[in-house]
């Protein structure tokens, strides 16, 4: 995970995806790319708090379990890296942001949480 982040693959891919979405949906679409270390639970809590503090509706949360075949390692929370990144981090993030997604759905009629994984 750390070596992937150090290569800036997450930032480059996120920025490219954001540009594609803006092109497809138009510049008025309010889409953001934000960095988050799902392997660090304090980072997840801090990220979720910042999102909640902004008070804006959260219409979509997409969790993508994309770390695979990483060498065995431990996170700062002493958890196995792949499990923490692909499961526990997204679970915590979803738990912390679900109220914001529910509020957006009540207000605007539509919101969703999407979890993506692979074999």
From TrEMBL:
Pfam families: adh_short. Keywords: Oxidoreductase. The keyword Nucleus does not apply. It comes from the Eukaryota. The keyword Oxidoreductase applies. One of its GO terms (molecular function) is oxidoreductase activity. InterPro entries: NAD(P)-bd_dom_sf, SDR_fam. Belongs to the short-chain dehydrogenases/reductases (SDR) family. This is Protochlorophyllide reductase. It comes from Cryptomonas curvata.
